[in-house]
Please model this.
Amino acid sequence: MIFYPGALVKPEAYSPLAKGIAAAGHPFYIAKMPLNLAVTKGDAAEEIIRVHPKQSFVLGGHSLGGVMASRYAIKHVDQLEGVFFLASYPDEKGSLRETTLSVLSVVGTEDQVIDRDSYNKGRSYLPDNTVYSSIVGGNHAQFGSDGPQKGDGKATISEEEQQNDTVRAMLDWLGNLR
Model:
C-alpha cells in the first residue's frame, strides 16, 4: 500500500494508520513529499514500485493526497490493484471511471473541510464498483494524527476510534480485491 499524505501534513501523522495496516500483513509506504504537498511530487509512487517490483500495490491518500494519487493511478493502471481515498475524491484529471481498478472511498460524517459538492462531483469519476464507507462521528483531521484542522467539524469519536474504523474499512476492502 502506497499512501500520499494530505496537504501540509507530515508523513509521521499517518503512523497509526500505517501500523494498523502493516500489523495485518500489508506493507505500508508513506510517500514523502517536498514541502509536505503531494502536488510537488505526484509521481512519488513510481520509486516505491520500482524498488519493490514483486509486490502488488494499491495507491491512495488523504485529502489532496488522494487527488494526486488518482492522477498517478490513471496513468499507471497496469501497475496497481486499486485506489483508495480518505476524505478525498478524484478530479477530472484523475478520473478512474473507465478503469477496472478496485476503489475505496472513506469519509467522516463530521468532516467540514471536504467540499461536499466537489466530493459528489468526484463520485462521477469513480467506477461503479467503488466501495463507499462512512466513519460515523469522524472528521477530516482525524484520519491522521496532526491535531485539529481549521474549519473542520467536531468529531464525536476519538482519533483512535476513527483510525481503527478506517483501518477496518481498508482491510475489508483489501480482502476483497480481485
Notes: The two ends are 15 Å apart (CA to CA). The CA atoms of residues 110 and 139 lie 5 Å apart. The chain has one domain: 2-175.
